[in-house]
Amino acid sequence: MFEIGKIYHRRTDLHSKYGGNPQSGIAPCANYPIVFLFTSPRGEEHGYKDGWISDTVFQYTGEGQYGDMELTRGNLAIQRHKEQGRELHLFQRYGHGLYTYVGEFEYLKHEIRSGDDTDQNRRKMIVFYLKKCN
Asked: How many domains does the chain have?
């Protein structure tokens, strides 16, 4: 469906065709069995620390810029993607509105960590461990 390494324009190539919230890092699509995940180095401004922890496992910080993160909305969509018959597709920011397709992933587990929110207040953060499928 998507080509690994190919650059996609988030709004025109992804959201206009498949749906999902174009402003959220976790964007479940209403009419397709897809959950888009977006990561960017700019996420560190909000306490997100995404990245590879092995050749096949990617650490992805849940959604929510302020206060404790909860296992609701997009975070819940990640955890329950298999039972809901949805695929997780990860994209990494390339430039303004542009994202490189990293691949399809599956949820392995998550943990709760302490971290800072956008206002530098301590909070509970959900960190997902996602395994690359291909």
From this structure: 1
